[in-house]
Amino acid sequence: MSTKNIFFLGLILAAAGVLSPPLALLAGLVFALTVEHPFAMESHDLSKFLLQASVVALGFGMDLHEVIHAGRSGFVYTAVSISVAMLLGLLLGRVMRVPGKASFLITCGTAICGGSAIAAIGPITDANEEEMGISLGTVFTLNSVALVLFPFVGTRLHMTQSQFGLWAALAIHDTSSVVGAAAKYGAVALTIGTTVKLARALWIVPLSFATAYAMKSKAKVKIPWFILLFCVAAVVRTYLPTLHGIYTALSGLGRSGMAVTLFLIGTGLSREMFRKVGVRPMVQGVALWIVVAVASLMAIRAGLIAI
Q1: pTM to 2 decimals?
Q2: Which single residue of 7, 28, 108, 216 has CA 20 to 30 Å from 73?
Q3: Which residue has the higher pLDDT, 100 or 125?
């Protein structure tokens, strides 16, 4: 079987639901590490579009009132956790002597929303290809681990769906991995995880402006419009309930789209990317991620934060 056929087979299996989100990511990673990607550039562009389209489609499966409640409740937790993560990440980067731009991008990716934050902030900092590759490689590697590890830990600790959704949103880097982990845990976890994570992603905007101002950069700040469309989808679903069958189908497409997205992200990883990361940036990323994940988990288990 040719490489192209294997790639398309993986897409079909992910879209059909045969591969769960964690398995889709694993299949993509195995593909990336064993054969040469026949559509590397196209795959990267498609995964970006499909992630946003899938998030919007998921909005058709969520009640607006639940979205507002989760978003409002998670706002304060998000603001505090982002602030602490940024300060700690920059401190760790300095202690471990990680190059400045790579350290800053890894910190932004961990604090806000992984690859999306890095893609938005990178051009503003004038980061070069190697610095972008190091940062993205670190974040995507940890995303792969989180997608499998978090549902396992949540189940072993008997976390409620509400607790798990909040934890996933606060401690997993990318929206796609949050949705993948939360969807595996349950419908309530998916609603809370997706909503709080998207509210977290909005912090890309003020951080981008602040970075541009501090570095006197004239790079264009990207606005994540798909988050607004997600809210519009929830409004339509809530106030036009007669089209319930259509909403269910669209929400199902959103979940399938997320599995395909994770497969594409997996195929985008490579041995070269892992080699570029190096020890120090990875140690910084892992250390910061562990602190964020453990601290948020302890706060949720202690009842200090809840939705």
Answers
A1: 0.82
A2: 108
A3: 125
